[in-house]
Amino acid sequence: MSVMERLPELTADFSDQKKAQIYKFSVSLANAYEEVIDILKKHDIKISTPSHFKVLTLDPRTAIQAVELAEKMFYIEDIKKDPKKLCITAAGIIKRMGQCDALGVAYKDPETGLCYDFIFSQREFNKLNLEQALEKHTPAPEEAVKSSAEDIKAHALEILKMFDSADDAERINAIIDKINPEFSEKEILLQAFREAFGLPDDSLVSEKIDAVLGLTDTEEKGMSRSHSHEGEVA
Amino acid sequence: MKFLEKYDFTPEDIDELIDVTPKKIMNEIKKSQKLVEMNLGYLKDLGVNTYVDMFLNYTDVFFMDHSNFKEMLDKYEKDSLVEKLNANYKLIEFL
Known about the structure:
The structure holds 2 protein chains of 2 kinds. Chain A is mostly helical. Chain A folds into 3 domains: about 20-85, no CATH class; about 90-135, no CATH class; about 140-220, no CATH class. Chain A contains 14 helices and no strands. In chain A, α4 runs parallel beside α5, α11 packs antiparallel against α12 (about 170-180) and α13 packs antiparallel against α14 (about 205-220). Chain B is built from 6 helices and no strands. Chain B has one domain (about 10-95). The relative contact order of chain B is 0.15. Chains A and B meet through α3 and α8 of A and α1 and α2 of B.
């Protein structure tokens, strides 16, 4: 079946007012992937208004990755409320979450459990003027050193060995390669392990990361370090 | 997307557009640049100041044929329409 043939299925719950607006979003419908309809259905994400058709134009692989990341990073309910948020670059969302975490800034409404809008918009995030606070934020010693990708992967392997999962090294390394290198090493390792293993509680991994980075810090005492403020705090 | 600067899109706005817009829709913007400009220009000339947010969130609407786009807006009393769209750009979805 084509997307147009599935339009009745997609719009079954639309009010008459919403059905009357479908024509305005016909370009998205013309560019939609049928597979994305099934991906959304599988994850119980409903198209509830014509402006949501935009999400159907995502490449199916991108859509799957975006949904899985939203589930792993606990913002899937935000996606269900507004599927268009799936179109937003996930790395940016996670970076803003990390920056809020670093500063102790709450990014979820305690009553609804949904993320505030600034998590989904760099423009809105910039309005918070957190840049100055981020620059002033003193990173913990283990975050002060910018590590190379090879160092990070070596540390990841040490952590995997602690869990007797050295065989997963290749998978973790592939994820590390995709993560924004401006994040701190600890953030990169946490995100990689979260994505690889879908951890609802990453406190144990976090402890292991602290241990590995702490050991490395001791080993490298006395060697020169370069400090970079740009992108230092995730 | 540099053409958007003519309509007061800042570099930050353009970055946001790239961040929230699937590739296929970005390609449509490039293909339909003249049409997009006509529709953006019409809103700007009307006095609507929320057209940047409209474009970011309801890009599809700007691919409408220009005469249909105008007709959609001209149905309403101009001052009232501009006031309402400036207060809530999301109304564009339901005009």
